[in-house]
Write a structure and sequence with these properties.
By secondary structure, the chain is α+β, with helices and mostly antiparallel strands. The chain contains 8 helices and 20 strands. The strands form 3 sheets. Strands 1, 2, 3, 4, 5, 6, 7, 9, 10, 11, 12 and 13 form a 12-stranded antiparallel β-sheet that branches. Strands 17-16-18-20-19 form a 5-stranded mixed β-sheet, covered by helices on one side. A 3-stranded mixed β-sheet has the order 8-14-15. Helix 1 runs antiparallel to helix 2. The protein is extended and about 120 Å long. The N and C termini lie far apart (114 Å).
């Protein structure tokens, strides 16, 4: 508008011969005005871009810190489920890839340190209906991950109409909930989860045992002073130790195996493993023959006398040479003698294990069972689900032996394969009290 006025004024004043000077002035004014308008447009565009950058930064903050930043200064332990540990803070993260969610795995829990009086130091821990080993899944719901005990104890065939009723009428059980920390891994998509609530808990219901059965004493789980112990990882299994503390402010009974009756610790060992792949065929149990069995209820047909299906827990043995009447197995059953067994008893324990070969000889197996000694410097733990171990247990004033086993409670897998964790416990002889 101002440029137009200058031009009009120039036209009028040009009558006096001054039009040239004023024309130049008008031109300069017009150029300056255009430059000012362009500068304002550039500033507006920059403000818009800055606003978008701020929005992007806000979105990034909402997603949390990047994967690498969360695990900075953590030690990486590669294996089935990658573990990250800060040795200074004893902080642990469990990495779960997208393909590992909603997939069934096996969990076996062993108490590897007890109190010497009520709870021993080598027992498999049964969780709900799981007999030593139970199937589980990791389920992601938003920013949370559930550690869920899969309910495989009530079933129906996938193509049966009643299967929908079984799925709707029964539930899995959530054993723990973890929070997702930070952003997924940029390449694998794995998320970091704080697994404290999965594993650092009174999984064996020790506090409940004291409150229900012992009026003389009550102990509670001390979460604040419980923590992660040893962590080990392998391609097909992840091994996690947790040290759990139990306390009592007013103990009313004397527990002779404790240094102070106000406090004791248990150590529990979790073995998380893949389902073993095999062509194993399960065998239905017969009531006329004594067997340890695994059972579930099958609702595919409601016309049966009862819904129970029982399978024999048995070893997965195959002949290396099926055409011969007698043959070594493709993969023998190997029992390891734990390095806690006193050396003077190891030969006797080994001999006792090998005697069981006689039971397999009528079936055509030669050397079905082997006995090996765990080295003193072994890198694997006796509670590792991959090994069958004969362990030595100390429980003052008591003596017994027991053979817990870990069958796989899933369809076509009702077995105790050679990779399962069977344990025979040898107790220290009972000595009389000095009193």
């Amino acid at each position: 508008m101002r440029a137009f006025k200058w031009i009009l004024l120039v036209a009028i004043l040009g009558l006096w011969g001054t039009g040239t000077v004023w024309a130049e002035k008008a031109k300069e004014e017009a150029v300056e005005e255009e430059a000012a308008d362009k500068e304002k447009e550039d500033e507006d565009e920059k403000d818009k871009e800055d606003g978008e950058d701020e929005d992007d930064e806000d979105d990034e903050k909402d997603k949390g810190p990047k994967f690498a930043k969360v695990i900075k200064d953590f030690d990486k332990i590669e294996g089935l489920f990658e573990l990250y540990r800060d040795p200074e803070e004893n902080k642990v993260f469990l990495a779960i890839r997208p393909d590992q969610f909603d997939k069934i795995y096996l969990c076996s829990i062993t108490r590897t340190q007890g109190d010497g009086y009520f709870f021993d130091s080598a027992s498999l821990v049964s969780i709900g209906r799981g007999s030593g080993t139970f199937p589980f899944v990791f389920q992601r719901v938003g920013k949370k991950v559930f550690f869920a005990h899969k309910n495989v104890y009530y079933r129906a065939e996938p193509d049966a109409a009643i299967r929908r009723a079984v799925d709707r009428g029964l539930s899995d059980s959530i054993l723990g909930v973890g929070s997702i920390e930070g952003q997924p891994h940029p390449e694998t998509g794995a998320v970091l989860v704080d697994p404290s609530d999965f594993f650092i808990q009174d999984i064996a219901s020790v506090s409940s045992f004291f409150s229900r059965y012992l009026k003389e004493g009550s102990y509670s789980f001390d979460n604040d002073n419980s923590y992660f112990g040893a962590l080990k990882n392998f391609p097909h299994n992840t091994e996690i130790d947790v040290v759990l503390h139990f306390k009592s402010n007013s103990p009313r009974m004397d527990i002779p195996t404790l240094a102070d009756t106000r406090s004791f610790q248990h150590i529990y060992h979790y073995s998380l493993s893949n389902l073993p792949e095999s062509d194993f065929r399960p065998r239905l149990a017969d009531d006329r023959v004594g067997h340890f069995t695994t059972l579930y209820q099958d609702y595919t047909s409601v016309l049966k006398d009862d819904p129970y299906v029982r399978y024999v827990n048995r070893w997965h043995l195959e002949k290396s040479e099926p055409k011969f009447d007698e043959s070594p197995p493709k993969k023998p059953i190997v029992f390891w003698l734990e390095n806690t067994i006193p050396p003077e008893y190891r030969d006797a324990v080994r001999e006792g294990i090998l005697v069981w070969n006689k039971a397999f000889e009528p079936l055509g197996f030669e050397g079905a069972i082997e006995a090996k000694q765990q080295p003193d410097d072994a890198e694997w733990d006796a509670a590792d689900v991959r090994y069958n171990v004969v362990r030595w247990m100390v429980q003052p004033g008591q003596g017994y032996a027991v053979g817990p086993r870990a069958p796989i409670p899933l369809p076509a897998r009702f077995s105790t394969p050679t990779s399962a964790s069977a344990r025979i416990l040898c107790a220290t002889p009972t000595w009389s009290s000095p009193n």
